[in-house]
Structure prediction request, 634 residues.
Amino acid sequence: MGRVGVRGTAGLASLAVLLAGCGGGTPAPPDPTDPTVAADRLVAALSAGDVRGIPATTDLQAELDQIMAGMDGVRPTVTHGEVRRTAGAAEVPLTYVWPFAAAKWEYTSTGTLTWSGTEWRVAWTAGMIHPELTSQTRLVHTSRPAPRGRILDGAQAALAEERPVLRIGLDKSRVPPAEWDAAARALADRLGVNADRFAARVQAYGPDAFVEAITLRHDADQPEGWRELPGAIGLQDSRALAVDRDFAPEIIGVVGAATAEQAQQAGPPVLTGDPIGLSGLQRRQDPALRGRAGAVVRLAPRPSTTGALTPATPTAPPTPIPRPLLFEAEPLAGRDVHTTFDADLQLRAERVMDTTAGSAALVAVRPSDGAVVAAAVSPGSGTDPHATFGHFPPGSTFKIVTALALLRAGFTPDSPVECTATVTVDGRTFKNFTGYPADKLGRITLREAIAQSCNTALIAEHARISPADLQRAAASLGLGQDYEAGFSSFFGAVPDPRNTVAFAESLIGQGSVEASPLAMAGVAASVAAGRTVVPWLVRGYAPPDPAAPLSADEAAALRSMMSAAVASGTATGLTGVLAGAKTGTAEFGTASPPATHAWLIGYADDLAVAVWVHDGTSGSAAAAPILRAFLAGS
Prediction:
């Protein structure tokens, strides 16, 4: 917006002037006596909204500012047709195209240039901007927000939809300009919102604007006494709200009125004050959900001429001034966004996480199709989407990836490995977790090494596989298979290690390896499904095809390892709850001893689950009770 469009044939005249001197030397400057050159400058300035450099018979910028003050910052693109020159004057056909969201508003008018003897000047009339404008009127735009699309769960039930609200704010037309700031601050104080911020927004809006301060659900308690404040009004409206405030709020997100900065970031056609998504799916899917706002443009009196146009007597109220309609476009409703959430499982996850201390997250995926059916965080995570976007070392849950890489290097679940108390790689000594059972040291099978979570057995085999092998194995389990998923998501990363020690760390899910609960749920889902599963949540966003798909035989071998963890390993507490599992503990931070994340991934029937606990002693102690409660429905 603001760019001069392609002109008609009239532009050829100025082009000829520019090319006249192109015989190999410096092009000739534009001919100042050519009115087409002046017309070019005029339409460029009108499109930009800055006409201060245009010679005119009046203060052109002041006139334009008055006319445009009620247009909410929307500017037209202006072009001109063939300039018709007469003695001492030139007539310029003008075409205006206003880029409203639901439809363009296009019309023509005429501007006149007069020759002063040294330059072309605009012979100002308001009709140059629109044929029906006069010296006493201006343009006023009113936005008509489109019905916002809904966010739906997997059963097509609404998770967020338009619901009745009360918008409380300041009607600037009811308060003298000198009192706008005081009125805004008084209302902000009464409503408990930031007074400085609200006062600044009030000043930024047009003179007739309603500036929203707060939006309340229709059944919410209202602050006392706000209606008695100068200029304060409440508008009954609707706004997209979560049907259940506790249903995945960090993923669903919220909708609010766009600030000037947010409108600028979103770009046209979003205007200051328009409802936009501010977080979660409401933000990521905002272009689809918000639809296209309708628009109304009317003529209105200029503030300085209101008295002259409003006849009144001491005994009669002011006569309403007609505001002729110039343009109207009906809003176009937004589109629904379909998710794969299972409402029952999500609410079950929310109940479990609500009673979980500290920061924790749970994600459940359906292995048969990869759909995310639940994703919840504890109150300690606040609004952070740790479940789907967390970047954490996955610890020993990543050993499933290492096991797959070893299988591809020729190992079987029954292959012998050495589980020693310690192992040293390039001067770095690694050990097993505190409390590792002494009777499980020595020569054991790969299956038992995974079931017991022996660090040293896997690190000792670091020379048998390469970093590239590990990365391919991760991708075959959905880890690191990033794609535009339509929501805040992180599918993990297995970067190239900087040295051999770092590679050894990677084998046990430490160092530079990162994953989210979403990504690790995908690992468990891949093993359960017998093929690569990359989780998805929003319909229309398809996961990528894996570069190295997981085979059915590989998955069967991994299932034998994960089932052993439940039968006789670190996840025996989940016997009868999960068919296969892998616990994990991941060190993080610089404390001594370091703090640890606790992990647990597993599957049962057509459900794969990952649980992460920020400060947890172990997967079996901290994460297993959460998973057990979720599957039990308590």
